[in-house]
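#struct-help
A.M.: can someone run this one for me? Single chain, 176 residues.
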Amino acid sequence: MIFFIGQSALVRIHKVSWHRFFGWFGAGLASVMVPLGITTSIVMTRFDKAQLHQTGIDAFVSIPFYDMIAFGVCIGLAVYWRKRPELHRRLVFIATCSLLDAAFGRFDYLFDHNLYFACLDLVIVLGVARDLLVDRRVHKVYVYALPLLMVGQSLSVYMWRHNPFWWQRITHAILG
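D.P.: on it. Structure tokens below:
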């Protein structure tokens, strides 16, 4: 979040060359975050099973896996379209917001009622509201990305809460 705010500030104060320089660091950081996030979720799920003797937690890996997929795709597209600022900044914003479900999930009520993704989506809707206020239209990035994110979020919650047989087989293969 600090990196995102810092990068936005650099553009705001017209230090675009610095923004581009540090942007490559951000691209490298993002490319490490995705495999590290997936690995961490696998290791922690194995730890919870082996050391804490928790049962029925295998299916939860769908949530961090989805987070990493959504983040990785949005950041990858943002890097690809880095010379198109209207696309780039919105994709980086969505990618950053896509990691907020972990923060919202720390609130028991939001976690227990599967509202963490809804809260995340509301933060993205603030970007939509900004576009409506400033540009008087919703940018096409939001038009395409937000529904796709919601479908992915719904699927990951379904895989976690209902744990269908096919997902059990996948998690068993991943977690051992």
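A.M.: thanks! Residues 2-175 form one domain.
D.P.: also worth noting: The chain has a mean pLDDT of 94.
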